[in-house]
Amino acid sequence: MLSQQLEEALNKQLNKELHSAYIYQSMAAYFESTDFEGMALWMDHQTQEEMIHARKFYDYINERGGRVRLTGIEAPKVDWDSPLSVYQDALEHERYITKSIYELVDLAQGERDHMTNAFLQWFITEQAEEEATASAVISKLERVKNSPDGTFMMDRELAKRPAPVATSSAAV
Q1: How many helices (H) and strands (E) does the chain have?
Q2: Is this prediction's pTM over 0.85?
Q3: What's the maximum distance between 2 C-alpha atoms anywhere in the chain?
Q4: pLDDT tens figures, 115-166
């Protein structure tokens, strides 16, 4: 069974993951409005991935006898100056989520909740991947930022991102 403090912290993270999905869907909408269909698809896939993350927290809270508590979701940003600025915001957001996961790990370890600590290890690995992926896109966009042809090629490359596959939280 989860402590009240850990249950509240896990619920906050669940809601942060839902907010992340909302942010990425806003980024997808921005790209659709600017005719960057590949980048929009990339962000749609990122939205799906964040929903999978949220579901993992949802299921885990319930599996440990906690109560899921959903909160309101703040409206996300809707406009950016360029594709590069969108991905820079995405990286900044992923760093925020990484910090939040680390704080959850610290709390779980402090409470000697080994099950929650083990559950959160998957997210640590996932966040390393999330940050590396966003950084790689930023690096490429920085190289082509003054080239419409280069940006077009990046849009086509990013359209190749496969859709995420949901796994049950039990498999984590």
Answers
A1: 5, 0
A2: yes
A3: 55
A4: 999 999 999 999 999 999 999 999 999 999 889 999 999 999 999 999 998 7
